[in-house]
Amino acid sequence: MFLSRLSLSLLLSLGFASCSEKPTMETSSEAPAEPTAKVVKTEEEWRKELTPEQYRILREAGTERAHGKIYEEFKKQGAGAYHCAGCNALLFHSDHKFDSGCGWPSFYDPAKAQNVTVRKDLSGGMVRTEVLCAKCDGHLGHVFEGEGFDTPTDKRYCINGVALKYIPAPAKSEEKAAEEKPAEEKKP
Ligand SMILES: [Zn+2]
Description:
Layout: H1 2-20, E1 26-27, H2 43-49, H3 52-58, H4 69-76, E2 80-84, E3 90-93, E4 106-107, E5 116-121, E6 128-133, E7 139-145, E8 155-159, E9 164-168, H5 175-180
Parallel strand pairs: 1-9
Antiparallel strand pairs: 2-3, 2-9, 4-8, 5-6, 6-7, 7-8
């Protein structure tokens, strides 16, 4: 009896743990169509389209948990592009990704400068530079300068993974070639 109650509570706690886990980064095999103009939506529309966590970050300038599951996922991701989870604008690329150890996805430069904008953020009793998507005004994170990281810009774009949509780069060989030689598929 004791044992079964123990295993039941174990199962319950495991169940709760998986329920409360943060959503992982949105991933798509195909690059989404990018917006050609400003993306303006009502709060209600955003709420419908985004997950609650995406809404909290992008529309309410929230911050995801540091060193969370999404960060672990980000570190393991290979080459690819990062688009805005709100409006699909291309924001960052794995070419500019670096391991800052801060617990959030870090880039030293945007992939498409005109899609990323900044503004002064005085919230939380700090002076920071907020990073936003220029197309939908979604909050992405903050950018820090002069921290001494060995990167070409000495900037750290500290970005919430939840605000990003990852598009893995196609394999180097042509897709057709990959189809012809499925035996050469890489094993993890
Ligand atoms: Zn956007």
